[in-house]
Structure prediction request, 832 residues.
Amino acid sequence: MSYRKQLSGSQKRKRKDEIGLAIQAQKGSILKFVRHENNEVDQDENKEVDQDHQVTAEENFYADKAQEMQQNTEQSFETDADTNQEITTVETVLAWDIDDIGTWPQSLNNKLRAIILERGPVRIEGLEYPKDIRGRKFTENNYYKRLSNGEIVNRRWLVYSKCKDAVFCFPCKIFNSCNLKIATMGINDWQNLSHTLPQHEKEQHHIESMHKWCEPSVRLKNQTTLDAQNQRLLESEKQHWRLVLERLLSIVEYLSTNNLAFRGSTEKLYQPQNGNFLGLVQLLGNFDTVMNEYLRRVTENEIHDDYLGPRIQNELIMLMSNKVRDKIVSLVTLAKYFAVILDCTPDISHKEQMSLVVRFVDISDSAQITVKESFITFLEVEDTTGFGLLQALLDELKRMGLSVMNIRGQGYDNGANMRGCISGVQARLLAENPRAFFVPCACHSLHLILCDMAKSSVEAICFFGLLQRIFVLFSASTEHWQIFKAHVSGITVKPLSETRWESRVESAKTLRYQSEEVYEALVAISEEARDPKAKSQAESLASEIASFKFLTSVVIWYDILVNISSVSKIMQSPTMQLDSTLTLLNTTRDFLVKYRENGFKEAQVTARELAEALGVEPKFPCPNVTRVSRKKRQAEDEGADEPIDDPEKKFEVDFFNVVMDKAISAVDERFNTLRAHHEQFGFLYDITKFNEIGKQEQLMTKCKNLESLLKHGDSSDLNGLELYEELSSLSTVLPHAKSVMDIVQFIHTSKLVDIYPNVYIATRILLTIPITVASGEQKLKLIKNYLRSTMSQEHLTGLAILSIEQDITLSLSYDDVITDFADEKTRKIVFN
Prediction:
């Protein structure tokens, strides 16, 4: 039978139609590898894409047909090859789906291969597989192989690709072990698949790929790969250093909060006098396994950076102090309104240090409102004028991100550069912000009142000079002090201080309650001392003590000092309010007025009891008769006062009356500013008294005046009319409010800020105004002493804030500090 060498016309037309259908089926297939950024696609485009997905089976069929006919038709072969090359290129370049093996690039790098191996082959359960043109489709039965004994084995390596509608060999695809279609393009010849898969399983390259796949899969599952082992070692080392840093931070926290020095004369481990920091590290190493291992590495030179040097210590201090300061600044920012409190004092190295403290109402806790005074920093100032101090303050506020326009109070001592009404800090700050109300320190003003009293008469000056001489004599030698302790028990004599007037209370207390014992001690020194100078001083002091005038002076001064000292201690509380302060001051003034009337006679009664115990006659000694100098009188001069001959009357007029008059006038003079602020804000302390008929207009006037007071330019803190309405309503809801704190606490905890916003603002501003000055002088002397006089300013500020703000320091999270420390220690070089 003879065969045609050439195709007939009918066969040629049929072949041409098949090639055209195959080309038409492959049209637009590249779009499924492109991920569109624009989600807004026209409906026609969506329909075209849907049609492309619907003809997937036809594409595969006609693609196979075109491949079978490429031996007979060169044009068909070229068309199919070009299309496959284009698809392969797009697969490699564009984004791919890790869950669809058909979208993977032909070559995988080690990183992608590790990700895919750890994830493993992905099979989509319950998928509706499309049919090809012959009506055949992939079935999940092909995932399994039936053995001759009837057992079924899972073909884990077989994976179906939804986008290609073909199956792939997972290990052969990953390791590029062959160029067969099942590893590159996938197989979709469903009719012959049952014969193709067993044949592929027997191939040597497939068996090798399976071994390559199974071994790392087991290692990844058990985390025994080299990368996993290195990662575990890295995590272990990371955890070790984190634990070490936690212990170092704990040591820094302990030394800072207790004002202890960090370094000694040497900076080496296990050396004498190497300081508290290294000493505590060594101590922890004896009981803690983490520090023991750490110290072993350091001593055996296994590590280069041991984190024990002074530079690292300073960095840890600064990281912790910055965390504390950031916490305070965040609270101040939330409160909005704050007051600044400044105080200047020289340190041990003769540098002027200005402490900055902020006072604000803490509203961060929804259940409780508190008034806080928080230390911010020490500022080294060279220009101590009002201008220089103000510039230092403004620069620091700018650095912290706090607005000077939110200052509603300023408190300083009574120094001229601070409270000066023309060029002082308060005057210059008021020029910047007229709502920064100035209040001089009430405690310091009380101390100045005592200073005025002590310098008002010769008798007062001599009295405190006598107390200092008694202390100097007893403390001059150990022998004198032993004699004093042998006669006086319980309390001791104290030296005088120009800044701490409470010390004068303690000095007068010894002679007020144990004058007899002190007298006997002086007599003993005059009799037993071998030094003639000490004998003479002891005899002189004993004779002065054993006088009714001195005993009366002791009683008078002790009564005055005790009263004023108790008031001063009460006013030092951070929660002290304006009305309470004025109440205490009025009570003090009433005491002074009453004491001026009856105090002299009452003091004489007590002094007679002391005189009887000493065996002293309760009489004022006659003054020495001296010639009285007379001044030349002018015609307009008034007549001269008659001289007083009675020694008791003279002592009362020249000493007691002068001291008491000076005290009363000083109280009236030094607290005028405080009374002026109370006149402006005082109506907020008792909101119920304006409910009476006829007082509503008075309340309206005060609310409008407060609005004007809290207005600067176009900025106003509150509305006076709305404040009046809110106070009228609040007085009926909260009739038993005892203080401003009760009002603001009620509004805050009841979440009524939106109903009473103006009352909430006014009360917070009132609570922000400081009453006394919180000084950091005591902490400054504890931290920067004569052994640490070369301390840097940054180091001083860091230790001070950790010590003063202990509540925040002890609540710090070590993890946050360690993270910041690690970020600072990371060395990264960016190459462009």
Remarks:
- The chain is about 55% helix and 5% strand.
